């Protein structure tokens, strides 16, 4: 498990491109037949990529989280950003189509992830995991793609028309900390999360997906008055500390998994600001 220590906003202006990427970009999460994990000390979130191709993969415990099983004191939201797959939690199989989300509650002991047809047209499953510490056990629950609470945001005229699906949230699938969903840009719209915001109560991570191989998202980060950017490819994740803007513009339409953990689960508890004040 890779460790990423927490950073303060006043470190950002002194970072060059390489350091920004090393601290906040998470590339290479999806490698055939591997489980890759990154621990950020921002709100103690673990990001993971699970890519079962030739055989199912079992999520192990890790010394970095000092537990025998991964879910001994944690919960997670998992979104499948690949071909159809199945997550079997303590003997119960949950089938995840592309874009579906499974909440796995604290106490799950045996978690096995597999592709339904790795050689098929849709390819192997690619499971993206966002985990946070949990104080109690909520039921493991599946949400089908496009379900949950749906919000239509933005406008074609400002290139930010998008559909936001809230899957794990205070009025949907229950959790201790994790708030998670998927946002999909409409064709011709390129801007996500603009007007932008921060939320000093929660760390948020984005995983961009369904972005063509040759396309990129220019993702903004840093404090609103001192932003930087990173150029991000398909299936790369970004860690946004509570003080950081998280917004981006693509060279093509795309989707992204957004997920948060921290002080509260209030999705609309955002610190907004006028675009004109950004630097
Ligand atoms: O398109 C959007 O806007 C989003 O998806 C915003 C994220 O959900 C977010 O940043 C929530 O805090
Ligand atoms: Zn946000």
From TrEMBL:
Cofactor note text? Binds 1 zinc ion per subunit.
Q: What role is this protein assigned?
A: Catalyzes the isomerization of 5-dehydro-4-deoxy-D-glucuronate to 3-deoxy-D-glycero-2,5-hexodiulosonate.
Please state the Enzyme Commission number of this protein. Answer: 5.3.1.17
Annotated pathway: Glycan metabolism; pectin degradation; 2-dehydro-3-deoxy-D-gluconate from pectin: step 4/5
- Name of the protein in its database record: 4-deoxy-L-threo-5-hexosulose-uronate ketol-isomerase
Sorted keywords for this record are:
Isomerase, Metal-binding, Zinc
Q: Name one Pfam family in it.
A: KduI
Give the species this sequence originates from: Isoptericola cucumis
InterPro entries linked: KduI, KduI/IolB_isomerase, KduI_N, RmlC-like_jellyroll, RmlC_Cupin_sf
Give the enzyme's main class according to its UniProt record, as a single word: isomerase
Q: Which reaction does it catalyse?
A: 5-dehydro-4-deoxy-D-glucuronate = 3-deoxy-D-glycero-2,5-hexodiulosonate
Instruction: Indicate whether Metal-binding appears among the record's keywords.
Output: yes
Lineage here is: Bacteria, Bacillati, Actinomycetota, Actinomycetes, Micrococcales
Q: List cofactor names only.
A: Zn(2+)
Coiled-coil region list: none
Binding of Zn(2+), residues: 197, 199, 204, 246
Family per similarity comment: Belongs to the KduI family.
